[in-house]
Specification:
Order of helices and strands: EEEHHEEEHHEE
Largest sheet: 8 strands, mixed
Number of helices: 4
Number of domains: 1
Radius of gyration: 15 Å
Distance between the termini: 32 Å
Number of strands: 8
Strand content: 25-35%
Shape: elongated
Length: 125
Amino acid sequence: MALVDAPGGLRAVDERGRRLPLDPSKTPVDAPVVTAAPRDTIVYHLLGEMQRESPALYAKLSSIRAVGADEIVLQIADLSVRAMTNVTLARLGDVDPVQRDLMRRQLRAAELDLRYRDQVIARLP
């Protein structure tokens, strides 16, 4: 499930992007906010898979926004993660060892970039 930033306010949608029959202003919904979603439903499918397969990651995800035809930025806790719209949960798992390494070095990334094959680019402030 996700909340879509739409004209008139947020609306709840399922993993196919179809509107759910609930009003987020009346019913508390703890779901990430999707803004400027791509036309297809790949982002919603990712969220559905994340909710089922990686609930801890889903719980830390606050938003997803499109930043181009095929790119998204996920806000995971206090970290921005840039990826392609076809990012997999396995690929998102590559963030954890990089974060641990940065913490060990007492560094904090402004953004992690997963757009490049087999690499995680850590942009430092």
